[in-house]
Amino acid sequence: MSEKEKKIIVNGKRPDGRKLDEMRDMEARAGVIDRADGSGYFRLGNTIAIAAVYGPKEMHPKHLLDPVRAYVKCRYNMAPFSTTERIRPGPSRRSTEISEVIKNALSSVLFLEEFPETAIEIFIEILQADASTRCVGLNAAAIALADAGIPMRDLISSCAAGKVDGEIILDVAGEEDCSGEVDLPIAYIPRKNSIYLLQMDGILKKDEMEKAIGMATEGCKKIYEKQKEALKEKYKTGEKKEVKKK
Amino acid sequence: MITQISTEYVRDMIKAGKRFDGRGFEDFRDLKIETGYVKNAEGSAMVTLGRTKVLVGVKMKVGEPFPDSPEDGVLMVNAELGPIASPDFESGPPRAPAVELARVVDRGIRESKAISTDKLCIEPGEKVWMVSVDIHVLNEDGNLMDASSIGAIAALLEAKVPELNEDGTINRDNMKKNLEIKEIPVACTIYKIAGKLVLDPTLKEESAVEGRLTVTTIEGDRLCAMQKGGQCGFTPEEVYKAVDISLKKGKEMRKKYFK
What we know:
The complex is a heterodimer of chains A (246) and B (259). Chain A is α+β, with helices and mostly antiparallel strands. In chain A, 26% of the residues lie in helices and 30% in strands. The longest helix of chain A has 29 residues, at 206-234. Chain B is of the alpha+beta class and 259 residues long. In chain B, strands 1, 2, 3, 4, 5 and 6 form a six-stranded mixed beta sheet that branches. In chain B, 45% of the residues are buried.
């Protein structure tokens, strides 16, 4: 394999003109799915995710019911048309694993003990994929949980750092994704300075890993603000919120 | 309730700096690797880590390469947490824990480029060797992640590539050529119990685990894969410390078992 001739990062400039530690533009909204108890939308560049939360509600199947805390169900799913090649509908090993790591990260901010014997369901749908789908999905889901009014310790935010052309960069996307050597997504709570989701693939030295985590935590801080903004926008005081009829 | 009491007990022990079997926080249990355990497999390894037992087998067959890498062999890792290994495991299709286990081991081998997949090409775009690594957990007593990762690389190091007859059938009678392995990825998982970082917990200790971080390392102080599990958070400083521990342990293991 000797396709390493053409560099895509030239003089610290990336294909889309971003700086090494610059994130793509983003957009966040709360309340996008009416039927759900809470929902969220998050867009990072060309990656778009929506998430819906149902519950706390009755737990099915009963044998999984937890007498001391709520059971969290999480489903990360990519729409078949979200990528260049169509994705076969239904769960895959990849989506099973991603659902699990997102579930763990989100569960850490929920007061599950307040809702024993119930289920909290989180559905994440990736509508358009251009790298970092698990991060964008998680960001949308955190908004959805807050929108659903489920007691939370904090919001949780996620983004990824990576390595392209030997450079550590924030938010790998587009062209960079194909020649990316490393992908390192994290989910982070700024106020606690703690990481709740962390995955990495590709070869890194320790100092590079530290740099990548440093960059990603800074990125998460920006996303955190964006998520907060979206929730504040929906729950602005002085404006009437549409009340659902039961 | 019983589990809750024993969980509290484990936490108290760890808080006091002690473990049931007298090990230090960064000590592994006795590790035994027996390769060539299954004669019919191209490569195999039985790993005994304390009372945890994992058998890993490698099988190869001829198949079609992926369109985006027409000259590369294919690696597949699968894990089975069958009911034989624990009363908590159920039969049926793999659930999240088995999928995660397989994918973490897979990532370590794949991302380190341990297998020279270009050497597994038979006919570009048409036929390549497909290498299946199957992780069979036989007795669950904690730290399946590390035991499986060690078993997988041990089985791959021992694996032989079958010959192809002229009619395209596979000849396994006299396999001489070893599978070409360039790196030895070793996963070391750092578990957090009562806020302390602990290695290689038994099942009893695992019940008190708040979070874990698996770091797979290769020669030259390099990392090739990481995976965090569990709900508890790690500060960046804890992550860096965990990585240091993994780098050190990986180096030790490679020296002791894979030289």
